[in-house]
Design a protein that fits this description.
Largest sheet: 22 strands, antiparallel, barrel
Radius of gyration: 25 Å
Helix content: under 10%
Number of strands: 45
Number of helices: 2
Oligomer: single chain
Shape: globular
Structural class: mainly beta
Length: 739
């Protein structure tokens, strides 16, 4: 490990020298606050350590995106951020979205499972993978924290955390509306309004609607609207200033979607021309072009989601410290239907439901700013009950029940983190989190498509012949206890630069794989992360450089068989790399930015990795292989982006021209170096004119303007491997008004 870190440190020094003497490579993040506030000199303020601080002073690699940066880059929903954040990917398993940072992520959703990268909106954790890729509503900023955040943000942050900050209701009346129309008959409308109900009482409300025909065509019946979708949401908030020292915000959000796009796949075709479906399917039924799918009419392939969320935030100034309470109730329902064989033949279709009810409560206590000792402490409780009913259809028969699984997952944690100023140039940070997790009331039913279950030792056991279908099998309770520490030393040569070295630990709770008909407990995964970092901010130029090394053990790796989620522990992996991002205001009108990450991620020991291959009958089946030394899935070695923004006065208004170029090297969607996606580049362009009053605006935009065709996901199962293709070139126009 020491050799790797020394190489990283040397490379960082070279990059720092190059970037700081080359401002033409940089971007204006001085205008990109991490929250609604900036310091008087325009420095970025973040909440990565659960308190407001200059980003320069926070010893964590952070990518911060303002609302303007998000608009300029065409970021309309959370997954679009991959275009502007180095080492970040958003992948999907059907309707379920799983972010990956620096190679740390999960590949499948199941009962009692959870993310490796936690997403927070206004301080509230989003536990469901179906709700992670949401439309962005009145967002002020997004912070992406790289590396495990196990001390301050909890158990499921082995890869990092994404923090989304939205606007609070305001007593000052205001509002805005935007309407867009684009290719494939895509329509989007968004409106927001806020104002006072009484002195000290403010209300806001926001609505969003988006629909489109999709770009796919069904080669069986010629339907070019097979990917038609719609999404809508309403969000409202009430803010009350109870006293000069106490305020409360109550929010309610309802969202719905009917979107088949993540399940619109065709046969995956390997580099040698092999179609990864049942080999004896008549050739004429294959669909292999990016804009084609092969579905029998009436299959009903798609996914519907329905979510209700109530959140309450109370902030109180206690004199010696600031107290914040976060209370959340979530009710999420998902229903998806997928063609598992990736052909036009009616072989096997599965329906998967997911219903979850979540309650979270957190109390956070922060010290007052200004003293040499800054500290944060708190307690956290999490409770999630879910059920996953499934149904299946063989051939043209109607759907029938295929079983169900469910769990009750709970966690309680206490944590503390403190930074002490030894001298004005030297700071030390220490923190720890104690987590107690337990899973009980876990069950699976004997399913129509399952003939065996897995015992506690991992052995396949036939279901007893006298046990009828849908009999419930209850799995014994699972408990985990874990302490995740954090240590940092930071040196501040002057007020515009900072150097740090850190050790942090991440932890993803163990789970019961009831979705895989298993009694075997899945071990918690842990990650020890070492990082060296450098930050600089002066005269409109900012830079961040970091070198990192991860020792990653007991990875929870997942695969999908015919209606069964299979989860195993990979023994260990090793990840290291270098990451950098720079920004600069070249002139008052012209800003540029660049970011890049090189990540070396390998399974050190994985002797029983899931592996797909063809049998003599022509069917696919899942076996195992030794993946030790293989590249980790969904982890390109290089990702980077370059962005520019240029503003000029035009026609008694302001014209802003912006562009963003994103590149990723090749990677594998599958675990054992299977299902490769070659490298690709995406170019986005935008031109927006705003009148002198800044009340009216009109924008034209284009995404993937070079029309590059690439896979956004691969749905793999033991019946067929399907490619989900990303949209081709898209373009449109947006009209906006503010008051």
């Amino acid at each position: 490990m020491s050799t790797v870190m020394l190489r990283c440190a040397a490379s960082m020094g070279v990059l720092a020298s190059t970037l700081l003497t080359n401002p033409a490579l940089a971007q204006d993040t001085a205008k990109a606050p991490a929250t609604a506030e900036q310091s008087p000199v325009g420095e970025i303020v973040v909440t990565a350590q659960r308190r407001s601080e200059r980003s320069l002073d926070v010893p964590i690699t952070i990518t911060t995106l303002s609302d303007k940066t998000l608009d300029d880059a065409g970021v309309r929903q959370l997954s679009d951020m991959a275009k502007v954040v180095p080492a970040l990917r958003f992948d999907k398993s059907g309707v379920y979205t799983q972010p990956t940072i620096r190679g740390v992520g999960t590949a499948i959703a199941t009962s009692g499972g959870g993310p490796n990268v936690a997403t927070y909106v206004d301080g509230f954790f989003l536990p469901s993978a179906a709700a992670t890729d949401f439309q962005l509503l009145k967002v002020q900023s997004v912070q992406v924290l790289k590396g495990p955040q196990g001390t301050l943000f909890g158990r499921n942050t082995t890869g990092g955390a994404i923090l989304v900050t939205t606007a609070d209701p305001s007593e000052t009346p205001g509002g805005e509306m935007r309407v867009s129309y684009g290719r494939f008959d895509t329509v989007e409308a968004q409106a927001y309004a806020t104002g006072a109900l009484a002195k000290g009482v403010a209300l806001d409300v926001e609505g969003l609607y988006r629909r489109g025909d999709g770009f796919q065509t069904n080669i069986v019946d010629g339907n070019d609207q097979i990917g038609k979708y719609n999404r809508w949401s309403v969000r409202t908030g009430l803010k009350v200033e109870i006293s000069p020292d106490v305020s409360a915000v109550l929010r309610y959000t309802h969202s719905q979607s009917d979107d088949p796009s993540a399940l619109m796949h065709n046969a995956f075709v390997d580099g040698d021309g092999t179609r990864w479906v049942y080999q004896y399917t008549p050739t004429g039924y294959y669909a292999t072009k990016p804009n084609e799918v092969a579905l029998q009419p009436g299959d009903g392939i798609g996914a519907k989601t329905n979510t209700d969320v109530v959140q309450g935030t109370i902030k109180a100034d206690l004199g010696f410290a600031n107290l914040t309470s976060y209370t959340q109730l979530r009710n999420e329902r998902v229903n998806s239907v997928q063609d598992l064989d990736a052909t036009a033949l009616p072989i096997f279709t599965i329906g998967i439901g997911s219903n979850s009810k979540t309650f979270t409560q957190e109390l956070l206590l922060n010290s007052k700013a200004g003293s040499r000792l800054q500290w944060t402490t708190g307690v956290y409780y999490f409770r999630n009950r879910d059920s996953w009913p499934t149904e299946a259809k063989l051939g043209t028969a109607p759907f029938v029940k295929n079983g169900e699984s469910g769990t009750l997952s709970q966690a309680i944690a206490v944590f503390g983190d403190a930074t002490y100023e030894i001298t004005p140039q030297l700071f030390v940070t220490a923190g720890a989190r104690y987590s107690h997790d337990w899973v009980d009331q876990a069950f699976f039913e004997r399913a129509l498509t399952a003939s065996v279950y897995e015992d506690a030792n991992g052995n396949a056991v036939p279901f007893p012949a006298d046990v009828p279908l849908y009999t419930r099998f209850y799995v014994p309770k699972l408990t985990n206890d874990r302490v995740t520490p954090r240590f940092v030393i930071r040196f501040k040569p002057d007020d515009s630069s900072s150097l740090y070295a850190s050790f942090t630990q991440g932890y993803k709770a163990g789970l019961l794989n009831v979705g895989g008909y298993s009694y075997r407990q899945v071990k918690p995964e842990t990650i020890n992360a070492y990082e060296l970092g450098y930050k600089y901010a002066r005269n409109g130029i900012t830079a961040e450089l970091s070198g990192f090394y991860y020792d990653y053990k007991n990875l929870q790796v997942s695969s999908f068989q015919a209606g069964t989620a299979r989860i195993t522990n990979a023994a260990s992996s090793e990840i290291y790399g270098i990451e950098g991002q720079v920004s600069a205001r070249v002139t008052s009108d012209f800003t540029v930015s660049a970011g890049a990450a090189w990540t070396h991620a390998r399974y050190k020991s994985f002797p029983n990795a899931p592996y797909y291959q063809f049998g003599d009958s022509g069917f696919l089946f899942e076996t195992t292989t030794n993946a030790s030394g293989f590249k980790m899935q969904r982890t390109p070695e290089f990702t980077g982006n370059i962005a520019a923004s240029y503003g000029i006065d035009l026609a008694e208004g302001r014209l802003n021209l912006s562009s963003n170029l994103y590149y990723t090297s090749s990677f594998y969607f599958g675990i054992a170096e299977q299902f490769r996606q070659k490298g690709y580049a995406l170019l986005g362009l935008r031109a927006e004119w705003t009148d002198a009053s800044e009340k009216y605006s009109v924008a034209v935009f284009g995404e993937n303007v070079t029309d590059h065709r690439y896979r956004s996901a691969v749905n793999y199962a033991s019946l067929g491997i399907g490619s989900v293709w990303a949209a081709p070139a898209t373009y449109g126009v947006t009209l906006g008004v503010k008051y």
